[in-house]
Every structure is written in C-alpha cells, then in structure tokens.
C-alpha cells in the first residue's frame, strides 16, 4: 500500500493564478469592459488637461526660445535665450514688475489680516452669523469684470458716487478728484476692488480652520488663565498653519496673476503706473503679436510664482518642524 502525499488545498489567490495561467494571462470580458469604461470616463479630463494645459505649456516654452510674430512670420525663428535676456533689461517689463510687486505686497498683507480678523469676529457666534457669512461671501459670485465697471462708475470724477458723497453729503469737496487719473490712487483703487471681491473667500477658509480647532483646548486655556491675545498667538495661530498654507498660496497666486482689475479700471494707466506683468504679457502677445517675447515673460512670471509658493510652503513646514 503506497502512502499518498497530502497537498494543501489551493487558496483563492492560487485559484486565480491557475486560471490566469490556463487562460494565457487573458482577462475576462467583464474586466476588459470595466477597464475600457474607466478609461472612457477619464478620457474627457485627460483631453482637456492635454489640450488646455500641457500642450500650451510645452508649446509656449518652445516659443519663448524663438522670434515669432504670427502676423508677419509663417514659422518661428529660433533665437535661444535672447528673449529672456531682453526681458530682464526691458524698462517696461521692469516697470510692470515693480507695479506688480507694489500691488502684491499691499493686497497680500491686507487681505490676510482683514479676512482673518473678520473670521475671528464671526467665530464668536454672533447673532445673525449665517447672514454675515453669506453677505461677506456674496461679492465672490459677482463677475470681476462687472465689478470693475461698477467701480469705474463709482470713481468717475464728474458724476461718480464717491465724489458726490464727498462733496454733497460729507461737505468735503476738496477731497473729490479724478481717482483713476493719478497713479497712486489708481493703484489703491485696484487693490480695493481686489479686496472687495476676494476677502469673503479667504474669510470662509479661515472660519473653517477656526471651527476645526477643538473647543476643549480653548476652554482649557481660558480656565488656566490665558487671555484672549495669548490664546490667539499660542493656540489659534499654530492650529491655523494648514489654513495659512492654503490661503497664503492662493494669495500669492492672485497677487502675481492680477489681470482683470487693472485691465478694466485703468488699462494700465495713467501711463504705465498700473501696468502689471500679466497685462503686459497679454498686450505683447495679442496687441503686438510678439508671441515669443510674451512667452518668455510668461515663463519668468511662472518661475517667480513657483519660487514664492515654494517659499511659502517651506516656511510653513519649517515652523511646524520647529514647534515639534
């Protein structure tokens, strides 16, 4: 009598491998259909990303190395890094960069401070808090171009609402002026329009971050005798670090990519006192048709944005690691 060797039963994984080996590694028709269906669902997004993001990014990178006026030239002429060298020495580009820096610093500091302050007030659970949240968020649903036209009417020197209030309501006719005809007040008007349109969005982000802080921590700090300022600096601000990363990144992007506000309010004027980089890129590309030079300026602006966003992230992570 021969002893039979007992073999362990096959597991489900072994059964699957055996079936795949037996079928030559082919998938079942149902799995193939599921895979094709998944690819079809992803296809529209992939086509959109390629057509409107990846291809323009790569093609503009190629154009930045060429001299190409598509009205006069049939094909781009390769010139290497000459466009970048020209941009770094161009007085108009340097003026647009300076104007963008003035706007960016002013807007970024004010929007972060004011939106956080409003969020702190709403966090105190005031009466009609929901109404206040809706009211502060409402401007973001208004198209920015329409808001710009409204601001142009408000700031109009002859029949504008602001000058009418100053002269006829408050009795201060000496303060009435052509607000958009002076470089300083025109830039201030652009900053105010941007603040009006975006403070609500950042306020809601800060308010969400505040509501995520456990109430027990704040209550324990209050019981231990921590005042309002100490709770704010030692508990609230550290707890809002992830929110600061998001709002800071968004603020940097909006600051450096500003376009609609100066385009509608001042068209870069008076002179070039409110001309910003994004607007200069647009004018260079679609008014003067110098696509190669505009692409080079666009890549310099993109590099600046990436550097500042990366700096914001590194500083936030460094502070978090230091606290740990």
List the defining traits of the structure above.
disordered N terminus, globular, two-stranded antiparallel ribbon, 1% strand, mainly alpha, MetI-like fold, 324 residues
Describe what this molecule looks like in 3D.
The protein is mostly helical and 324 residues long. It has a single domain, classed as MetI-like (MetI-like fold), CATH 1.10.3720.10. The chain has 14 helices and two strands; from the N terminus they run H-H-E-E-H-H-H-H-H-H-H-H-H-H-H-H.
List the helices and strands and how they pair.
Layout lengths: L11 H11 L6 H35 L2 E2 L9 E2 L3 H8 L1 H33 L5 H9 L6 H11 L6 H9 L13 H29 L3 H9 L4 H12 L1 H16 L3 H6 L11 H10 L4 H33 L1
Shape: globular
Distance between the termini: 72 Å
Share of residues in helices: over 70%
Helix/strand class: mainly alpha
CATH superfamily (homologous) name: MetI-like
* Domain tally: 1
- The CATH architecture comes to Orthogonal Bundle
CATH class descriptor name? Mainly Alpha
The strands making up the biggest β-sheet line up spatially as 1-2
Q: Which range does the strand content fall in?
A: under 5%
In short:
Helices cover 71% and strands 1% of the residues. It has 324 residues and is mainly alpha-helical. The N and C termini lie far apart (72 Å).
């Amino acid at each position: 009598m021969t002893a039979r060797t007992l073999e362990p039963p096959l597991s489900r994984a072994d059964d699957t491998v055996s079936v795949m080996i037996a079928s030559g590694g082919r998938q079942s028709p149902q799995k193939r259909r599921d895979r094709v269906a998944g690819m079809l669902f992803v296809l529209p997004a992939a086509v959109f990303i390629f057509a409107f993001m990846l291809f323009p990014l790569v093609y503009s990178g190629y154009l930045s190395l060429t001299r190409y006026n598509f009205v006069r030239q049939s094909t781009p002429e390769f010139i290497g890094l000459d466009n970048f060298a020209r941009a770094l020495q161009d007085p108009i580009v340097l003026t647009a960069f300076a104007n963008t820096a003035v706007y960016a610093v002013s807007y970024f500091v004010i929007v972060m401070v004011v939106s956080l302050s409003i969020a702190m007030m709403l966090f105190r659970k005031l009466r009609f808090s929901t109404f206040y949240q809706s009211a502060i968020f409402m401007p973001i649903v208004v198209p920015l171009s329409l808001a710009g036209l409204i601001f142009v009417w408000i700031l109009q020197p002859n029949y504008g609402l602001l000058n009418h209030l100053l002269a006829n309501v408050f009795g201060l006719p000496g303060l009435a002026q052509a607000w958009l005809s002076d470089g300083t007040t025109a830039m201030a008007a652009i900053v105010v329009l941007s603040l009006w349109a975006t403070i609500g969005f950042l306020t809601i982000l800060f308010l969400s971050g505040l509501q995520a802080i456990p109430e027990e921590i704040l209550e324990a700090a209050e019981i231990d005798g921590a005042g309002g300022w100490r709770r704010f600096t030692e508990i609230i601000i550290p707890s809002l670090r992830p929110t600061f990363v998001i709002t800071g990144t968004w603020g940097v992007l909006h600051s450096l990519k500003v376009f609609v506000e100066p385009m509608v309010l001042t068209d870069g004027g008076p002179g070039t006192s409110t001309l910003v980089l994004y607007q200069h890129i647009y004018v260079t590309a679609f008014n003067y048709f110098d696509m190669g030079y505009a692409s080079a300026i666009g890549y310099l602006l993109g590099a600046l944005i990436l550097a500042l966003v990366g700096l914001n992230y590194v500083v936030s992570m460094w502070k978090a690691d230091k606290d740990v």
